[in-house]
């Protein structure tokens, strides 16, 4: 599949909707915390930093960083569709973010998706180089405002109709700079009960996005912590 970039939930949803009803669930927990590395110089918020996709890919979590039971998904499922919609103008920005294939203003991106069995959890890690820490902060604020303005969106699933998804902010894992998190929950329709949680946080000029689909409600915090530590260590950002 085309790698999910910051705000594109569609690919993760597409990976798992067909398998949510499977009886063969393989147990898999969230990533274990990685010891904090020695502090290194941080990037200056006002000075643009140039990074490449290759550089960001090295800072992504790998299968070896996760507990047993996970596998990496390498399919390409992007088909150009826009599964999220809403008749409300207040949800216009959030719908745009949810349907996007690239974070607004991203200079370089890298992503990796892992599955913990046919019924989940599905964990997606995305890194976006925004150039400066200020740009990361601005995008985070825009995303938070978009979530705060919108109470529900509609998810259209191929072959399964529409699902109404409740939108709500949740307590964010306390890692990185100004972390923010939200949840989408299917309240009616073909995928009623489907739950998706996501966290976005900053490490210098890099925005980290961690998303969990069909989890147990405990994976987001350790997954975010591990992602933040890996980025700090690999890109040498204190």
Automatic annotation (TrEMBL):
Keyword Heme: no
Region (Disordered), start-end ranges: 21-51, 67-87
Domain of life from the UniProt record: Bacteria
Compositionally skewed regions (Low complexity) per UniProt: 28-50
The entry's keywords: Signal
Signal peptide as annotated in the record: 1-21
Protein name, as recorded: PknH-like extracellular domain-containing protein
Organism field: Kribbella hippodromi
